[in-house]
Hints:
Layout: H1 2-16, H2 21-64, H3 69-89
Amino acid sequence: MKNIDFLMNMTRDLISGKLDCLGYMLDFPYEVIRRYEAAARENREYADLIDDLLVENGVYVCQDKNLSDEKSIKLIARQYKEVVSIVKSGFI
Length: 92
């Protein structure tokens, strides 16, 4: 799952401080768009979760609410944990 792993690793890098918040907010939605078809071939439900939880209800919420970097990272971390929880539960 090369594309899904890339997107999840990018998010993990933000949470761990290896990637700055501005870079993530600008690059992550672009990477999801660019990699979506390939990620969907790997696992459509997982690709949809990434788009729904990390882009739509993560990055876009941070931007719409003009959250600080600290609050943005906390929100993305919560969304990331939700994705991981759903995947681990076997729902996808």
